[in-house]
Amino acid sequence: MDSFLELEESIAGKPGGRWVNPSNNAILSLLAISLALVCGIFGGMWEGFLPNGLFELAAKAEAEGAGSMIISTSFIDLSIPQSQIYGVISAAVIAFAWWVTLTALIKWTFGKTPSTAVLGIVTAWIIVVVVRGLGHFVLVEADWAVVWANRVLLVVGQQMTEQMTQAPGSESCIAVSNCYGVNQNWRLWWILYPTFAIIASAYGTAAEKPARFLVPFSLVVFILMAVAWVPSEINYHKEVPILNLAKALLIGYIAYGASFYYCVTNEEYKANRLRSYIAIGAVVTFFFAIMIMNPPEFVKELAVLAGGEPAQGMREAIIAGEVIPSTLDKLAGDGIEASQWGGLFVNLIVATAGCVLGFGIGVVLAFGRQSDQPFFSIPSIALIELVRSGPLICWLWFAVFLMPDLMDPFYNAEDIMRMLLMFGIFGGCYIAEVLRGGLQAVDSGQKEAALALGLSPFQTKMQVELPNAVRTTLPSIVSVFIGLWKDTTLLFIINILDFFKLAKDLPATDLRFLGNFLEPLYVTALVFWVFAFYLSRISMKIEKGLGLVREGGGEAA
What we know:
By secondary structure, the protein is an all-alpha fold. The chain has helices at 2-12, 25-42, 54-63, 82-106, 114-141, 145-149, 151-165, 186-204, 211-229, 239-265, 268-293, 297-305, 315-319, 327-332, 344-370, 374-388, 392-401, 403-407, 415-440, 444-452, 457-487, 499-505, 518-545, and strands at 68-72, 77-81.
């Protein structure tokens, strides 16, 4: 009860009424809670002035045409009225606002801490307005069928959606004329497996309680399974993604367990060495993702030498069910060209390029700018100042129209590949300036000590200066990463079918969804917020591991 009273005082203020004493303080709190629950369920007095209660709000939402949340699987068939969900959520925040208000009045916190009381009441009722308005749109007004029916399209784009729904084994593939013959989705799963392994092993190095990672990790995977399993608006065999997600989950468990056990049973320097290997693995995974989606010719030739036969040449036999192509056969065949990538996958790939390539380019430019040799310093300064002088959208147009003239003699890159490079250069220039500040903050004594111990200038820079600079500038580096992630929405301007462009054009894909243009945009905003928030939380965890944050909160000295 004491902890609850402390929470109450932090929100509504300290009791100021002379009638409040330690013996009846808890009783008055229970009285305020009881009255607040009554107001939340049944509504307040003075109709038209105070908010309605649970039952009336639910009835109004149902009268306005609120639908039902249907959960239909092979095991359960459940329908939950969205009007009731809206009523419960609204009643909960209304009861909370009444609790704050009644507590302030019953205990007269205005007399002791008036600012806290007023701020608490105003904030509580603002929460009521926001939650009720947002809840009314989400649960009553909006029609999320446009997003649900196109969930695969939003994630992987048109080409991969066709490969999922028009390849042998899918429910819509009936005749040879509307079948591709080769399912390319295996390429995405090959990317997912090492990604899960890298993420799980990275969390394992923290050596925290396993439940802190395994519970949310499992929950996310189970949610993805549920999305794939619900049969509404799908024309693929749902068993395939369920099985692959289960494999990815198992790989994550194994990677986490191995990493956790290694870090717990070994010294810290060995754990740090493992973390460096995981970082290298993350970079390798990024380049592997690009390679596996559209393998270069030498990879296809190696697959043929190993016994594979290009799967596209067996199209008719595959559709007829006479041949099941092996992994080598698929690898020897054509992949998905970069110009055909789409959806959230494109945003993730481009943002990762900005982070991975950008960090590498940023390190080179930061050291180059500090170099005493004009051969290194002048080009570094020129590139940094040139790129930072223009907005990203201008450089994207440059990559579309002018960069081919520079690259075609050496490499005929597609638009997406040029975007990857451009995001890497743009992010690298900003990271270089961030790192430059960190490098200048490194104590000269550390450099001299490293040289005195026999380290070469290169080793001193990479093993002494760079780690200290990254440690100092980590929050700023993560801010650049988050900015690059959000900037991937600019891809739609140059007509790349990224997540935002698909969401914007989604209502026009089906006559059923005309006019439902807000729903996809809200989902887009939510997805971008989730990923940005996740990056921020990772940064905070790394800072805590580096000792940059005090145990009780705040920055360490």
